[in-house]
Amino acid sequence: MTEQQQHWFDKLAKDREESATMLEKPSMRGIKNSVVEKYSDQAHFIYELLQNANDAKATKSSFQLTTQGLYFKHNGKILFSVSNPDTEDQDKENNTLGHINSITAIANSNKTESSIGKFGVGFKAVFQYTETPHIYDPNFQFKIERFIIPVKLENDLADRQTDETAFYFPFNKPEMSAQKAHSAILEKLKKLVFPTLFLSSLQEVVWKAEAGTGEYTKKSSKQKQANDITYEIIELYQQIGLNQTKENLYLFTRSSEENHTYSIGYFLDEKDKLTPKQFSAFCFFPTKETTNLNFILHAPFLLTDSREGIHRSKEHNSSMVKLLSKLAADSLIILKELNLITDDIFETIPYRNIKYGNDNFFSQFYTAIKEKLQTEEILSAKGETFANKPNAYWADSPPKLFVVFRREPKLFVVFCRETANAV
């Protein structure tokens, strides 16, 4: 820690002590409780830690769960910083606010609304399990007391590697027993859902506990480009104890004019054919938003405070769904070129006019894909030919049929929209 950093650290500690005293007043205690307990899933902070590691450009991360606390480490290249507490408003606007300033504040960080966290409110969920989170990196070693006060530690973590950032969360919460904390976190570590899939840097998450071990990894093939769409095969590997699973999917990605990256993923079976699978919508990690779509999607949505739902009133989110729908429709052209369009495509694409998501929030996928099939040569007709609009019709009456006319006169195929089989 340089002399300037020491000065700002001490000044920050004094500033936060004044704020902590205010938060501890009976009239203010509800603020702290509402921040800490906003997640219905108490161990959601595991995802928040992974977000922070990804923001630090980490490629590897690890958890070590003991009966007395939780250790988290990553190899991120961006280290902790501190800035002048007197200029925090200006520094936030300039994206120069120190990490320690952010982690000891409430809802004050450099991140924009639709980016993933740099020690925003989400990190505060760790206080469900600990009173004093410890942080160690090459520049700073400190703990946080009374929710927001940074306190310098005299000693580094004994086994921390020189290129590691480490966290330690002792289970010292009076109302949360160490046993209960241990059990809740262990269950969460066992049930993470594709924790690396939509992160830009992080490729490996491993964990270790007395009761077992686990691993989540991501590997990608060489990216290819089709106009403004990037696509690649992603291999997701998971091992929990002796159980191993592997998922392969084609991931299609675009960036918006505001540089927001969004993706659509189609899962592949053991024969490398498309296979339908349903997941909730992702905002880097899974939300609780049902889509009723047979593929996976991700966008930097603006989420509710609990990070479980997508704000319906935010224009940004409506725009993201529109962009995702167009990406899904445009991806069909690439799938055709990859020889992945067969009669079974109707098991994957939204061919029925049903309710897609709560409040039909994802209905544009049905509309966009329907229009694409009516205007492009996508569906196979005979041999290597494909049906275009003059020869292909999306039948709305009767509602269960999709009709594709072959190029040859008087020859046609009728597809059942309920079964996706030729009849």
List the helices and strands and how they pair.
Blueprint: H1 3-23, H2 29-36, H3 45-55, E1 60-65, E2 69-74, H4 88-93, H5 99-103, E3 134-136, E4 141-145, E5 149-152, E6 165-170, H6 178-190, E7 204-209, E8 212-220, E9 224-226, E10 229-240, E11 243-255, E12 261-268, E13 282-283, E14 285-286, E15 296-298, H7 315-337, H8 364-375, E16 379-380, E17 386-387, E18 392-393, E19 401-405, E20 412-416
Parallel strand pairs: 1-7
Antiparallel strand pairs: 1-2, 2-6, 3-4, 3-6, 4-5, 7-8, 8-10, 9-10, 10-11, 11-12, 12-15, 13-14, 16-17, 18-19, 19-20
Helix pairs in contact: 7-8
Outline of the structure:
The chain is α+β, with helices and mostly antiparallel strands. The protein has helices spanning 3-23, 29-36, 45-55, 88-93, 99-103, 178-190, 315-337, 364-375; strands at residues 60-65, 69-74, 134-136, 141-145, 149-152, 165-170, 204-209, 212-220, 224-226, 229-240, 243-255, 261-268, 282-283, 285-286, 296-298, 379-380, 386-387, 392-393, 401-405, 412-416.
Sheet bearing the most strands, described? 13 strands, mixed
Which of globular, elongated, flat, extended, rod-shaped describes the shape? elongated
Extract low-pLDDT stretches: 112-118, 395-415, 417-423
Radius of gyration: 25 Å
**First-last Cα distance:** 73 Å
Under CATH at level 1, the class of the largest domain stands as Alpha Beta
Number of strands: 20
Strand content: 15-25%
Mean pLDDT: 87
Number of structurally distinct domains? 3
- Total helices: the number is 8
Helix and strand sequence: HHHEEHHEEEEHEEEEEEEEEHHEEEEE
